[in-house]
Amino acid sequence: MELITAAKGSVHITPLQDSLWHRAIIGAETCILQKGNKFAPQVMNNTLIRIKDGVGMIQGRFFCIEPNTYDEVELSSGSQGVNRIDIICAKITANGDGTQTGSWEIVEGDPTTGSPVTPEYTEGNLDNGDPEALFGIIKVTFEGASITSAESINEGAQSILLSAPLSSGAAAHNTIYRGKYLGSAVTDEQYARIQDGTFHDLFIGDYWTIDGINWRIADFDYWYGTGDTECTTHHAVIVPDTELYKAQMNTSNVVTGAYVGSRMYTTNLATAKTTINNAFGSAHILSKRLHLQNAATNGYSSGGTWYDSTVDLMNEINVYGSKIYGDVINGTNWPNLYTTDNSQFALFRHDHSRIIGRDANNNRSAWWLRDVANTTSFARVNSYGLAGHNNASTSLGVRPAFGIC
């Protein structure tokens, strides 16, 4: 044992020891603290980004831009006819003489004539002796020679200062929205923390950017313990920030067979399942049992049973926390409303703006829900944020939910 807080007559506290204390108190490895402008970016011209004041931490090591000051970072110029995404990272470098220094590092993306992809970078691990560690702070998007946006990518990764240590498990982690960028793939360590049900250093709103799509954590263990065959696998529920593509619920304006009988369920979800399997690996996609509706009478769901489920459209309750256009009661007939999806995802409870759908160009876009609304339509989220419904033959956004484990 080594006593750290003690008078020893000489300098003896190392950066590693200090960082362990910081991580234990704050409850995170790397984050932006709730102080000042939190490194908010400001576009000054087509190559210059001003970074406002804030306090952050990389693997327990604090860094800051002091109040009423700012830093400026110069990026490489964009080029006409191509698009690019760069990441501005806070960087700690371990020098050969035992000292450490902080700086800004630009991770430059590959130019493309299509949709640009967020570049990957290696975070590094100072505890293990790596020479540097990086923390992505700002995403800068170029369209041609112009910067079209500069946004904080870890704006919500704020400190978790609690009066008592944060409990492990879904109940505690579902109560905190963080919004931290987690990388370009789920790491083995992150999968391990999902599988053991502790969800260590994973919180609502955290996300991975894979193949240009932000895949965001919406809930933990939402389906755990449910189903006619009990779900006993710990999992994180994932929802993409944007629609994956547009598709119809049916080729004509009918609701025959409700959700399970729809063309969306039988055919149009296939591309989404392929995209999700490619992003996370089919072995990591949760298989659970959902009670889904398979019959409709006079515009309401009249039948349903248990089905195997990996990737499905959300229902109104997942998004809003209640039924709105989906049927509730039809005279003397009870609609078939049996569902284990009977509470709102934590993501939408904490951040209402996440209900708004976006297309690949970040324009607001309507997206499908699986609830039968009447004889010709299913429920949807309107591009203005309204709860609504659309004729089944309309092509709207496909934004499914699924679990990873």
Overview of the molecule:
It is a single chain. The model is unreliable at 161-165 (pLDDT under 50). The protein has two domains: 15-152, Triple-stranded beta-helix; 169-405, no CATH class. It is globular and about 80 Å long. The chain has helices at residues 15-26, 170-173, 188-195, 263-268, 270-280, 316-320, 346-350, and strands spanning 31-32, 41-43, 48-51, 54-58, 61-65, 71-74, 83-94, 100-108, 132-143, 146-152, 207-210, 213-220, 236-240, 246-247, 288-297, 300-309, 311-312, 367-372, 377-381, 387-391, 396-397, 401-404. It is α+β, with helices and mostly antiparallel strands. The strands form seven sheets. It has a five-stranded antiparallel β-sheet with strand order 11-12-13-22-17. The protein has a four-stranded antiparallel β-sheet with strand order 8-7-9-10, with no helix packed on it. It has seven helices and 22 strands. A hairpin with a 5-residue loop joins strand 19 and strand 20. The longest helix has 12 residues, at 15-26. The two termini are 37 Å apart.
